[in-house]
Structure formats: C-alpha cells, structure tokens
Amino acid sequence: MVGRTRPALRIAMVMYPDNARLINSALAAVAPDFRADIIALGRMDSMLAIRDWLDAGGLAGMLADRSLPEGSSTRSSSVSLPFLGQPAEFNDGPFRLAALLRRRVVFMTGLYLGGNRYEVRFAPLADFSERAGDPAERERQIRAALQAYADRLEALCREHPYNWFNFHDFWREDAPRR
After folding, report:
1. Has this prediction a pTM greater than 0.70?
2. Burial grade of 14 (CB within 10 A; 0-12, 13-18, 19 or more)
3. Which residue from 135, 127, 50, 144 is spatially nearest to 90, judged by alpha carbons?
4. In the chain, where do the E strands start and end?
5. What pLDDT, on a 0 to 100 scale, did the predictor assign at position 130?
6. Which of 5, 10, 6, 107 is nearest to 55 (CA)?
7. Nearest one of 152, 63, 150, 160 to 117, comparing CA atoms
8. How many angstroms separate the CA atoms of 3 and 79, rounded?
9. 57: exposed, middle or buried (C-beta count within 10 Å: 0-12, 13-18, 19+)?
10. What are the residue boundaries of the structural domains of the chain, listed by start?
11. What span, in angstroms and rounded, lies between the C-alpha atoms of 37 and 50?
12. What is the pLDDT of residues 108-162, one digit of tens each?
C-alpha cells in the first residue's frame, strides 16, 4: 500500500487467484479504496502478463515459496538446501521465472519491530538479465540464486527469530537430526 503514495511506481503481486481473493478481502477491510494490482498464476497467459507488466516498467512481487503453474514452459522443482542446521526444501519457481524472463531478483522482507513498527529491507539477490550460455549454466545460476535466498533467509531468522513462521511442515521428516 506504500506504493500507492507514489503513483508512478506500478507494483503488482504475482499469486494464485484463490490467494488473491483472500488478500483483496483483507485489504478491503483496512483500506476500502485500495485495489491491488494482481497478476494471477496458473493461467495460460500468466507468463506473458508478467513479462508485459515488467516491460511496461512495472515491478512484480512474488512469494519465494511459490511454484510455477502446471503446464508452464519451465517447471519448478523443490531443492533440498541446508537451513538452520537441517535440510529443507526450497522451491526454485520464482528464480526459474526470473531466468526465463531474464530479470533481476530483489529480496524484500518486512521485519516486525514491535508495536506498529516494521522495517522493510531490500537487497539484490540475483541477476538473470544476461542469457545463460547453455542450459547447464542457467541451472547453476538458478541454484546459486536459490542458495543465496536460503542463506539470506537463515541470516534473518537468526537475527530476528520471532519474525519467521511457516504454515506447513518446513523441514523434511526423514532428514537426519543433528
């Protein structure tokens, strides 16, 4: 909603339609005049809509645990990476999307500081703007970006342990305990 104070800054959320309905309902309760710009995942034209939005100068945000829609030209996969001392599954969907569209990825987080205070942080995470030399190189770039994301998330969890939560079992049950 901060983006609404700067009309020239066009920001869209990339999400699945069911999630979009929930977000819009919540936002309507606190800001009735607010209309979120949402690009729906899971549609035949999702990738084109994201590309067109970005080409027109807009910014697009996507939760980093999202997978790419079924039937998309590039499938996302789950990658096991070390996280807080245990192997954890991370989805490479957002990074595959950025690589496919040849875009930069910026990590963004909002840290709760208590009361009504939040600190919003942005940091460069990956740059896929140059075409990879071959598919193996692109896979290495995606894996490196995903590892950088996991590392940054882990550092924030250690710095602010009560700010992180997840709605599903995050660690693999069959992972060896240390």
Report:
1. yes
2. buried
3. 144
4. 11-15, 38-40, 59-61, 78-83, 86-91, 104-114, 117-127
5. 92
6. 10
7. 160
8. 33
9. exposed
10. 1-61, 64-167
11. 11
12. 999 999 998 999 999 999 999 998 889 999 999 999 999 999 999 999 999 998 8
- Residues near 69 by beta carbon (within 8 Å), at least 6 away in sequence: 41, 42, 43, 46
The CA distance from 84 to 160, in Å, is 13
Q: How high does pLDDT run on average in the chain?
A: 83
Structure tokens at 33: 């005049």
Residues 110, 63 contacting (CB under 8 angstroms): no
pLDDT value at 39 more than 90: no
Here the tokens at position 101 are 């569209």
Strands 38-40 and 86-91, bridge-based pairing:
unpaired
The three-state secondary structure class of 100 is: helix
Compare 1 and 90 and report the one with higher pLDDT.
90
- 3-state DSSP helix/strand/coil % of the chain, to nearest 5: 35, 25, 40
CA gap 172, 7 in Å, rounded: 43
Rounded Cα distance between 40 and 61, Å, is: 12
Residue type, 147: Q
